[in-house]
Amino acid sequence: MAIDSEKQVSSSDSTIIRIVDNIKKSEYDPWDYRGLELSNEMLIVLISHPNIDKAAVALDVSIGSLANPRDVPGIAHFLEHMLFMGSTKYPGENEYKKLIEGNGGSSNAFTCSDHTNYYFDINPSLLPDALDIFAQFFISPLFAASSTDRELEAVNSEYEGNLFKDVRLRIVDNIKKSECDPWDYRGLELSNEMLIVLISHPNIDKAAAALHVSIGSLANPRDVPGIAHFLEHMLFIGSTKYPGENEYKKLIEGNGGYSNAFTCSDHTNYYFDINPSLLLDALDIFGQFFISPLFAASSTDRELEAVNSEYEGNLFKDVRRITQLEKSTSDSEHPYSEFSSGNTESLRPTPKQRGIDIREVLLDFYKAQYSSNRMSLAVLGNQSLGELQSLVINSFKDVPNKKLQIPKYAPDPYGEKNRKTICYVVPVKESRRLIIKWVIPDHQELYYCNPESYLSHLIGHEGDGSLLSYLKQLGLAIELSSADRNSGLGLPGFNFFTINLELTIEGLNRWEQVIYIVYQYLAMLRKEGPKEWIFNECKNLNEMHFQFREKERPAKFVSNLALRIRLHAIEIYLQCFQQTFENNALLELFCYFVGEPCFDQLRTKEQLGYIVRADTRRSHGVQGFRIIVQSARELDYINQRIELFIDSIRVPQLEAEIIKTLERNDLLRFYDHYISPHSIYRRKLALHVNPSSLTLQKSIDEKNTNENKDQLDAMNYKKSLSNTDKERTQIEATVPVDVNHEAIKLTEQLVMIDNLIESKLKQIE
Q1: Gap between the Cα atoms of 180 and 697, Å rounded
Q2: Which of 160, 491, 641, 695 sits between 20 and 30 A of 542, alpha carbons compared?
Q3: How far is CA 316 from each of CA 214, 230, 324, rounded to the nearest angstrom?
Q4: Can you give the residue range of the structural domain that contains 188?
Q5: Which of 162-176, 431-445, 571-585, 719-733 holds the top average pLDDT?
């Protein structure tokens, strides 16, 4: 819109000295425009249209912060706040606000260097009333003295919020919570990539905070087992800002608080709770442990003894002994097989004999593994969300970001040679238990549908017709539970699914028959296939638990939440095919089976570029199929070749190979619906990245080295997948879709167990 020319129009109103109607506008613009100049030299533009949802007004004053008196900086901004505090005609402080916000409108203002702008919108029928109140602010404002302190605080709040704008990347206020939950939540992502959830409520007995680091005992150096756990102990022994060894402990425990930490396979968790009034002090000390810890040499021996004390205490716990047995019987090349907790033997004399300085290893491990982009923080306080935000940003914005990737581990810690094993355990306490355990894929990314819970729900059912009720009828068992291990212990890249039975004396004597019955039940479930009504039942139960969450200790609550932030998305961007866990598993399978043909066609045969990769791309809860080609050729040509390859997936020869591998049609239906160029549901983004001239001048040797590494990584990844046995693939493909499950070839029982059962039944006969 532009004023093309001016035209004087006569008016009976002496306050108008000029009217301009021939304002140039877009030919597609249905609105009408008029320009006015009043006798007081105010310039006005009027815009009219009969069909609008909101009326709106803005007034701009050509004066801003550059006009501030030198001895009172900020007065222009303060005036912007105070102007709305009533007028001679409308003295009520909230009269304007009530009219605007009470009728679906909004109002605001901002101060810049050379101008200040005030604006509002409202229901069109109330424009005359709003306009009259609005105008009086510029005719006879009151600047009510009673509002001074409050508006000064508002100005200061804006100032404090702006202090940290450079360290805040993302704010999420629409976090889903229970309807019965009175707490307020906010998600943050800082510029150092630390993820944070703030929880606020004015009436809490304890404030609490927890910080999760996505690194654990699986990352221990082979020659120094237990270093991750030892670091967990040493981290609390002072920092550069707070060098006193007991400063943190005194503050927490001296004010009715509690502090602890634990190390798992893939993560470490630090947490505390305290009197809410001392959260600020505690957070600042806590944050410094992750910015500049001292790892005081004088504390080394004492903390080694503490680690050893935990180790000795666990020697007589059956759960710990069984866990160590699992590790000892796994593949010795996999980090899961290593001694994880550490003791004085592994951390003092053994390293010393090898010439290893344990403190140097500790410092190296911290530098190599602790980074803000591997951390997530949860904080609960009685302050407002805005105040909590300022606290955590101030305390954690300086945690260094080393841009570390989350470690990946081989998907199977046992391998074929270490499976199908029976172990006999003599318990410390009297116990008659049968534990059956399977290695399954890591499905933590499918947290929103949790496929393992479906199976746990059925196997753990205790009503009529259940596995447990049948075993009870036979007098073989009195208790049964089933679950996946990753519900809290953290096993990245793989998972365990466990059925744990407490047996009767008779059941212990007939344990082979119990196993046979368990496998019969699993075969029955497989034959019946997944049922939507059961899945909905699980979903409704989880929804009920979510809506009526039991109250728990604040430290435990934030500790669990800090873990979940890293596993789960702060925000969920919904995509049509994420409604079921079936399609997520199928996308993984599709990428696996198409990856090698893609590389063979586009890299080997067509030689489009050195790097060719097909994989799954996930970000912020959205996922898709991705093909990457690094090439010097034109984008259109590369894009065309990729499309032709995708279309060729339906070529009978390749299609037959996929069907032969899967022995089902699910994958092809998935391809037709979401990936095929002929699908109406497909959503595609083609991205072409051009290198800068400076990048092109970089060392070709360095480039080739990186490319070769990418290819080697891809080859190793494919090799690890190809070593995964057929049963693993079929577990991933077992999803609730309408297919003939009887046609799927699955191993019903282990050969060793078959032989045991057969011999036992012969004895019974």
Answers
A1: 60
A2: 491
A3: 29, 21, 12
A4: 167-396
A5: 431-445
Number of domains forming the structure of the chain: 4
Please report where in the chains the tokens 């809490």 appear, as a residue: 204
Residue tagged active-site, from 232, 303, 338, 512: 232
Using alpha carbons, list the distances in angstroms from residue 721 to 494, 596, 724.
13, 11, 5
At residue 738, the pLDDT reads: 32
pLDDT in tens, 185-217: 999 989 899 999 999 999 999 999 999 999 999
**Calculated CA dihedral for residues 635, 641, 643, 644, nearest 10 degrees:** 160
C-alpha torsion 155→159→160→163, nearest 10: 170
Of 663, 575, 654, 571, the C-alpha closest to 616 is: 575
Question: What pTM did the predictor assign?
Answer: 0.58
Instruction: State in Å, rounded, how far the first CA of the chain is from the last one.
Output: 97
Element housing 372 (H / E): none
Count other Cβ atoms within 10 Å, centred on residue 30: 9
Taking each helix axis as running N to C, give the angle between helix 726-733 and helix 581-598, from 0 to 180 degrees, rounded to the nearest 10.
130
Taking only the tens place, the pLDDT of each residue in 270-326 is 999 999 999 999 999 999 999 999 999 899 999 999 999 999 998 989 989 998 998
263 in any annotated domain: yes
Among the candidates 486, 511, 536, a domain finishes at: 536
CA dist 390 and 201 (Å) reads 16
Give CA 533 to chain center in angstroms.
Answer: 29
Which of 141, 163, 185 marks a domain boundary? Answer: 163
**Does 707 qualify as catalytic in the annotation?**
no
Same domain, 74 and 173: no
103 with 126: CB under 8 angstroms?
Answer: yes
Measured CA to CA, the distance from residue 602 to residue 611 in angstroms comes to 10
